[in-house]
Amino acid sequence: MDGLDTLRGRYLGAIADAADEAALEAVRLAALGKKGEVSLKMRELGRMSPEERQSAGPALNALKDEIASAISAAKAGLQDAALAERLRAEWLDVTLPPRPAQTGTIHPISQVTEEVAAIFGDLGFGVAEGPQIETDWYNFDALNIRPEHPARTEMDTFYMHRAEGDNRPPHVLRTHTSPVQIRAMQAQGAPIRVIAPGRVYRSDFDQTHTPMFNQVEGLAIDRDISMANLKWVLEEFFAAFFEVDGVETRFRASHFPFTEPSAEVDIRCSWAGGQLRVGEGDDWLEVLGSGMVHPHVLRSGGIDPEQWQGFAFGMGIDRIAMLKYGIPDLRAFFDSDLRWLRHYGFSALQTPTLYAGLGA
Q1: Pair 300, 142: CB distance under 8 Å
Q2: Residues 107-114, mean pLDDT to the nearest whole number
Q3: I need a labelling partner for 329 at 20 to 30 A (CA). Which of 44, 45, 120, 321 fits?
């Protein structure tokens, strides 16, 4: 077959002159594609006599293999050159000093929430969650908060907007995590032991109050639970949370619609030198509200108050974080100040555990 040497020289030269992989692909298509010159000559073999095919076939196959091998070699060379250029451009002097490490921190609220969950988890409490936008019934009615109660006014509670003529029950930004207790009772029944941490919302803003803050509530229901059980649980919690040997508590009679009897709980402390020391001294610090769950609340959760009873309590996560870690202003929790976060934040490796130390 004539002209094979000419084809060989032309395509090998084009391969040698190709500046990039796109040019190599164009040469491959021109020579070996379906309509390439070498491919067309391969089709001519069918019109040849056996003697002609015997000499032309091997020559064409050799040319095809030679061109394909040359293209592969050229492509590999281009890739090697590109890699060498990239390595040259991305060269780094490893003897230079490193950049300062930019590390994030765990927010104190997140850390304290994990600490609280770890302590109550050790006491047998699960963690329950619920929606932050609640119906009026879950947030107030189910908790024995009467329609005339001042907490239900727009001065204290954020109500969701309703279109004119909308007769559906109103929705609110939950004012406490107590609705989670109702949902947990409805879902699990009795007996039950859960805590409900989460964001809550009230219309208030000063050094110790913000429109949004974090709260944790606890609920324990069984057949013979009493205030004595509540006192023991809280004292165990405070001792573990503040990492002291023991914390004396003082219960003061109070009133909450959802508990009866109700009590404010104080812990013994000292303010000597302007520094809070929990578990010692002659001062008292109010930290939470508590009581025995009201029968109306049990019925709202689908539990028979004639057969079951239990206690509940609630405290501000932000507030106990301030007490434990000496944070003076609640509003700083929400300022997104990186300097503040670096000062009061926690390493991601500081996972709270009772055996290794909560804030260690």
Answers
A1: yes
A2: 91
A3: 120
Tell me how far apart the alpha carbons of residues 360 and 358 are, in angstroms, rounded to a whole number: 6
DSSP secondary-structure letter at 4?
H
Task: Give, in degrees to the nearest 5, the angle at Cα 13 between 12 and 18.
Answer: 100
Average pLDDT, the chain: 86
Q: What is the pLDDT of residues 115-145, one digit of tens each?
A: 999 999 999 999 999 999 999 999 999 999 9
CA distance linking residue 295 with residue 258, whole number of Å: 9
DSSP 105-118: -B-HHHHHHHHHHH
Domain definitions of the chain by residue range: 4-89, 108-344
DSSP label of 252? E
Check whether domain 108-344 has CATH 3.30.930.10, yes or no: yes
Question: What phi, psi does 266 have (nearest 5°)?
Answer: -110, 155
**Long-range CB contact pairs, 122-125, < 8 A, 24+:** 122/240, 122/354, 123/193, 123/233, 123/236, 123/237, 124/193, 125/193, 125/194, 125/195, 125/218, 125/220
Question: pTM, whole model, 2 decimals?
Answer: 0.67
With the C-alpha atoms ordered 83, 86, 87, 88, is the resulting torsion angle positive or negative?
Answer: positive
Predicted local confidence at residue 68, as pLDDT:
85
Partner residues linked to 218 by β-bridges: 195, 313
Rounded-to-integer distance, Cα 189 and Cα 195, Å: 15
Is 352 within 8 Å of 118 (Cβ atoms)? yes
The CA radius of gyration of the chain, in Å to the nearest whole number, is 38
Per-residue pLDDT tens for 239-260?
999 988 889 999 999 999 999 9
Distance (Å, whole) CA 222 – CA 228:
13
What is the C-alpha to C-alpha distance for residues 324 and 112, in angstroms, rounded to an integer? 9
DSSP states along 31-78: HHSTTSHHHHHHHGGGGS-HHHHHHHHHHHHHHHHHHHHHHHHHHHHH
**What's the whole-number mean pLDDT along residues 313-340?**
88
Backbone φ, ψ for residue 221 (5° rounding): -130, 130
Count of CB atoms situated within 10 Å of the CB of 115: 23
Contact 225, 310 (CB under 8 A): yes
SS (HEC) of 274-290 = HCCEECCCCEEEEEEEE
